[in-house]
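Blinded run. Sample ID left blank on purpose so nobody reads anything into the name before looking at the predicted structure. Input follows.
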Amino acid sequence: MPLLWTVRRLHLGFSAFTLSLVFPSALACAQAIATGSASEVVGGRSASATTNDAGPSGIIPFAQGFNASLGASSQYDSGNGWSSILTPGLAFRFNRLLSVNASVPIYASVNVESNTGTKAKPVYTSTTQHGVPGDTSLAAHLDAHPVLLDYNATFSIGLPSGSTAYGLGAGKTTYDFNNHFEKSFGIFSPDMEFGIGTSNNLIQPRVHKSYTSVGALAHFQAGTSIDLPLNLSLEADLYEELPFNPSTIYAAARSGKKKATAATTGNAEDNGFNTSLDIPLGGRITFSGFYNRSIRNDDDITGFSLTFLLKPPPKPADTVH
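Blinded prediction complete.
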């Protein structure tokens, strides 16, 4: 146990040290870019759009101004069956450096276990709920493009609009701070992420887990995106979510987990890999397929989605890096 706590403290210390190095350089780069011409006020093609795997490119606009999006996804969870989710979103880019966005998942259908007994003697019955929201997400992004690599910092806040009884919310305001680094080599763009937060809901927005963990945790990700013909984009990443303290788990289906409990240290740990493929069907519509394998929880989630944009993203040749 002392060794485990030492490792976790080293992770936290390393993250804090790296942030202290990154922010001064990112801000210096921001001042340099801000002096550029207005015609160059365009964000990076991938950094803001795919940080934390938020969805296909274009949800956050590349050019200065406003954009709206609507995601419609269906996914199959090996531990919880099928669910359908609508995710409306709003985003605004102030300039090449700064952008913000907000979104809220609305579950058109989701399988849950409702307590039909009493609090003292609960009896859980499987039911399907319709039209229930998850936690609302508000995020701010800082893009920087130094000579060696692209960098994006994202600070997200989760508002408790989701139900803890159904495992769709944290029951309190949560946050996440994420660092994203990437470098393009032809069609390959290797990337690395690390961050600190208080809920798993803010880490992988594209994949909707059947539970919500609440408690301080660090998360790490490494992988690459691949530019394919016809503007297709493939992403593959390994990830790790490592809790610092005992966490609370709110679960939509028990699947070996208790409904809501102050659990032991390490219960919120998760690791595995994510893959996604984005296929543009026009300037405003993208079809996506995705797959998540949780090695820690022995769980598989696969699904597909359609994302509709109010304003189409610029062509790759028009994007300024």
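Unblinding after everyone has recorded impressions. The longest strand covers residues 211-227.
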